[in-house]
Amino acid sequence: MDFQHRVGSKIGSGGVASSSESNRDRRERLRKLALETIDLNKDPYFMKNHLGTYECKLCLTLHNNEGSYLAHTQGKKHQQNLARRAAKDAKDAPAQPALEKARVDVKQFVKIGRPGYKVTKQYNQEAGQQSLLFQIDYPEIVDGITPRHRFMSAYEQRIEPPDKQWQYLLFAAEPYETISFKIPSREIDKSDDKLWTQWNKESKQFFLQIHFKADIKQQPSRNIPQSAIVPNQRNIPSQNPLNPYSAH
Question: Angle 76-92/66-73 helices, nearest 10 degrees?
Answer without folding.
Answer: 70
